[in-house]
Design brief:
CATH superfamily: Spore Coat Polysaccharide Biosynthesis Protein SpsA, Chain A
Distance between the termini: 35 Å
Number of strands: 7
Radius of gyration: 16 Å
Low-confidence stretches: 192-206
Largest sheet: 7 strands, mixed
Order of helices and strands: EHEHEHEHEHEHHEH
Shape: globular
CATH architecture: Alpha-Beta Complex
Strand order of the largest sheet: 3-2-1-4-6-5-7
Mean pLDDT: 84
Structural class: alpha/beta
CATH topology: Spore Coat Polysaccharide Biosynthesis Protein SpsA, Chain A
Helix content: 40-55%
CATH class: Alpha Beta
Number of domains: 1
């Protein structure tokens, strides 16, 4: 099997401590490039990213989605497209085996979008899965934040969310467009702990429902 040209995108803000352990060294050797989008960090995030060999871009306006869109604009300017783009938060912990499991269904042609999940999904991720099932009739078990997608499929999705609805928009648009999706158990690569407690998770669930309904119509 031919290895796909893979670029990893990490939107990061004040992630100086997290970035060195987001991907292990063996992972880095398998990538075409690592792209870190600095979202206006006040610490040494950009310097740490450069030490890892990353291309560092800045996007200080907007949220997580704006950073991801900045990466897409970067790819559009390159002489050669990636085969696969992986999106991951700086708190991810991916080793080379987990990366290969994530990419395998895409490289084999089984799917165009692979979603990394953990055995114990975060409360917010479980809520998103149930909401999408209720609206679209598709059951996601653990729709975590680590995603690998074939680049032509990513372009076809026409992603536009500049805020925290990016991950939800990707799922909804993929379902609407009939993109092949699989979930891959990545174990400890995804932090299952809720951030901010139950109250914050409930608030995030409300925002997720808003994003699910807002992205219901794909143009």
């Amino acid at each position: 099997m031919t290895r796909a040209r893979t670029d990893v995108v990490i939107p990061a803000r004040d992630a100086e401590r997290d970035l060195p352990t987001t991907l292990d060294r063996a992972c880095l050797r398998e990538l075409r490039s690592l792209i870190v989008i600095d979202r206006g960090s006040a610490d040494g995030t950009a310097g740490v990213a450069r030490d890892l060999g990353a291309v560092v871009l800045r996007e200080t306006a907007g949220g997580y989605g704006a950073a991801c869109l900045r990466a897409l604009a970067h790819f559009a300017e390159q002489p050669e497209d990636p085969d696969v783009v992986v999106f991951a938060p700086p708190t991810a912990r991916l080793d080379v085996g987990q990366l290969r499991r994530l990419l395998a269904p895409i490289e084999s042609g089984e799917a165009e979008l692979a979603i990394g999940g953990a055995p114990a999904a975060r409360l917010r991720d479980r809520a998103v899965g149930r909401l999408i099932d209720a609206v679209y009739g598709h059951r996601f078990g653990r729709p975590g934040p680590i995603r690998a997608i074939r680049y032509p499929a990513l372009v076809a999705l026409g992603m536009s969310d500049r805020g925290d609805g990016w991950d939800v928009e990707m799922l909804v648009r993929a379902l609407r467009l009939g993109v092949g999706i699989v979930e891959v158990d990545l174990g400890t690569a995804v932090d299952p702990r809720p951030t901010g407690g139950v109250k914050a998770a409930c608030a995030a669930g409300g925002r997720s429902l808003f994003h699910i309904l807002r992205h219901a119509t794909v143009r």
